[in-house]
Specification:
Strand 15, helix 16 and strand 16 form a beta-alpha-beta unit. This protein has 18 helices and 18 strands. It has four domains: 196 residues, Rossmann fold (3-Layer(aba) Sandwich), CATH 3.40.50; 40 residues; 55 residues; 209 residues, Rossmann fold (3-Layer(aba) Sandwich), CATH 3.40.50.300. With 549 residues, it is α/β, with parallel strands linked by helices. Helix content is 42%, strand content 22%. It is flat and about 110 Å long.
Length: 549
Amino acid sequence: MHVLQLDHVTVNFAGRVIFRDLSWAIGHRDRIGLVGPNGSGKSSLLKLITGDVQTETGYIVRARDISIGYLPQDIQLVPNRTVIEEAMVLPPALEQVEAELNRIENHLADPAVYNNPGKLTRMLERQERALETYEQLGGPGHANTVRETLIQLGFAPDDFDLPTESLSGGQKKLIVLAHLVVENSDVLLLDEPDNHLDLAGKRRLERLLRDYQGAVVIVSHDRYLLDDVATQIAELENGTLTVYQGNFSAYATERELRRLRQQQQYNAQQKEIAHIEAAIKRFEQWASIVVNERHIRQARSRRKMLDRMETNGEIIERVTERRQMDLQLNGWRGSTKALEINNLSMAFENDWLFIDLNLLIRHGERVGLIGPNGAGKSVLFRLILNELEPLDGEIIVGPSSRIGYYAQEHQTLDEWADRSPLQLIRGVAPKSESDAVAFLLKMLFTYDQTRQPIHTLSGGERSRLQLACLMLQQPNLLLLDEPTNNLDIPSMEVLEHALEDFEGALLVISHDRYFLDQVVDRVVELQDGTFTSFTGGYTDYLIAMKPTV
């Protein structure tokens, strides 16, 4: 049963068509992963469903009394509230019923009502109906449901009194998500709900989404989440929506098969068209020589055949490859011991992050560093980069190791924020202006973007700019802190292929489980101040941890 349908809708922003003549149906209990390159219009599509964006053509058909919950990318909470105060805000429907019950209570206390049997009876009947609605909306158990949902999403009871201003972006999203779950909307529209969550947070989110009783549409670049949760993938690209049944892995396989079939059909049809055009040319040539009416009719008949194919939309389009950034992280042979950490200890104001950490990374190793938020992973990187001094222990970078650092919040770009990517690239490597522009164009920047201030770029654009700098620095020891956070899936795949070919050592902090499976051959977990090492990728780590997870 479809709860929501889009029928030939078109959205246009400032003269740019985001999508045209798009149709889509969302069924009850569907788990849909909405994917596509950055800028393809995924967020706009969600806002179209909520009514925040208007369609120029077509219709949106919603089932009667359907409720829609929307989690935007950027969250703004009311200031000066605690976690529990923000989470306890009543859903609009429940708030209306509570206000109605309060009004009824006031009426019942009025002598003009309780001394009038007719009015009193009518008011008590009104109260009974309101209480029935209150029960249906979960009013009596609302407070307990809110607390249980917060705990389900990873908040501890001790967190309930924290001010919302102290929360991370991921935690703020979880509070809004708790609202939506408690409201029990028929359709949940979630725009990157997993951003900034650690691995445990992602697993909790997946359990919640699998068990949710309504339909869920998820915009996410987390391929592991989409494998675990999605029952279908809707791909939005070049203004067209294509639906694939199954999870992300099924989509990736089916998409490639469809493209191969389309290319084969295109090649066959082009041969057929070439034969028809050659026949037309022959008949026209014969007709001109012998002025034969039969040859003229044959030429005309075949020309009509081609025209009908075009008019009826039977011409198969050639498969075009997505334009991708040209990322090459070449590296080079360095020290056998690329990085060595011995008995390392670190604390801030008697708050110990870790004690006596030991780690050895050899040339060519790919190591994934995981652990809960706040465990000290980014601090460890700052220690390796000599931005902080450890309380004890030593860090030895191999004498032939050249470090290339990717910062999670793009801090490496801060000093260039008011200058352009063109100026940055020429500052990192000696290049002529034309060569620097050509280099940036290969990293998917437009000509205008090469000259605009870096602080005006999006998160994904700044991510690509950091990767561009790494290419030019030619390191052989990469320290990458959440490199996939702002990349779309095609760019993640390019990064993965580049790291496969990289000659050097890699230490990467990541909560992207699919990425870890593709890239690393060892996982090191930093938790409770200690390292635990596991051979293989994230899935191997998960199997090894199963008895305790």
